[in-house]
Write a structure and sequence with these properties.
Domain ABC transporter: 1-232
InterPro entries: AAA+_ATPase, ABC_transporter-like_ATP-bd, ABC_transporter-like_CS, ABC_transpr_LolD-like, MacB-like_ATP-bd, P-loop_NTPase
Keywords: ATP-binding, Nucleotide-binding, Transport
GO molecular function: ATP binding; ATP hydrolysis activity; transmembrane transporter activity
Low-confidence stretches: none
Protein name: Putative ABC transport system ATP-binding protein
Structural class: alpha/beta
Strand order of the largest sheet: 7-8-9-3-10-11
Order of helices and strands: EEEHEEEHEHHHEHEHEEH
Length: 232
């Protein structure tokens, strides 16, 4: 991301953010409400267009793509995990996971489906509907759906915000395992210092600007930094 600016009317959500995320890195974005973290995530993922600046994914300039190009990029090279799960209630777990493949007209590899379902702990739940699952299980379905296309990067927007503490830690442990064992690149927006501590690096934002970072963060370090940002 190079010199990203995003304005809404007279409000500057992003004010010249430059940030590089390495392949296989787990980065958490944090900041006070209105700091620009979700806007930055959406611009990085091709869900929103910056007012100026450039975004690259690998060798592709995301900000130079037209809408069909962006749609193809999001479908084939990017995965999304959101707080609200966004599952289709009429579909069972298997069909929810494989939905991106079907929308892209790609065949479903049953062995791959089983492998991903097993990795996220849903191997015995493929025939269940979302209403039959717990919140943590539904978030695992959303994660498996994000992974089924072998994305280069997964973007997660408050993925544990709707979960209880124990379930949230199970999901966060799974996310870290995907990074450490499978080399997945992961970018997560969170408000929770404990969630952020699972990342390799925490990037802090304030008033649309980068406001520092923490490597190998602890919850206490993150909470202290957030307190400082909130007071500034």
């Amino acid at each position: 991301m190079e010199e990203l600016h995003k304005t809404y009317g007279k409000m500057a959500a992003l004010a010249g953010v430059t940030l590089e995320i390495a392949d296989g890195e787990f980065v958490a974005m944090m900041g006070p409400s209105g700091s620009g973290k979700s806007t930055l995530l959406h611009c990085a993922a091709g869900l929103d267009t910056p007012s100026s600046g450039r975004v690259f994914l690998g060798g592709v300039e995301v900000t130079a793509l037209d809408e069909p190009g962006l749609a193809a990029l999001r479908r084939e090279r990017i995965g999304f995990v959101f707080q609200a799960y966004n599952l289709l209630q009429a579909l069972d777990v298997a069909d929810n996971i494989t939905l991106p493949l079907r929308l892209a007209g790609r065949p479903v590899d049953e062995a791959k489906l089983m492998a991903i379902a097993a990795r996220v702990g849903l191997g015995s739940r493929l025939g269940h509907r979302p209403a039959e699952l717990s919140g943590g299980q539904q978030q695992r379905v959303a994660l498996a759906r994000a992974l089924i296309t072998d994305p280069e990067v997964v973007f997660a927007d408050e993925p544990t915000g709707a979960l209880d503490t124990r379930t949230a830690r199970e999901v966060l442990t799974l996310l870290r395992e995907l990074v450490d064992e499978a080399g997945q690149t992961l970018v997560m927006v969170t408000h929770d210092p404990v969630a952020a501590s699972y990342a390799h690096r925490v990037v802090f934002l304030a008033d649309g600007h980068l406001a520092g970072e923490a490597l190998r963060p602890t919850p206490e370090q993150v909470a202290e930094r957030m307190t400082q940002l909130g007071a500034s």
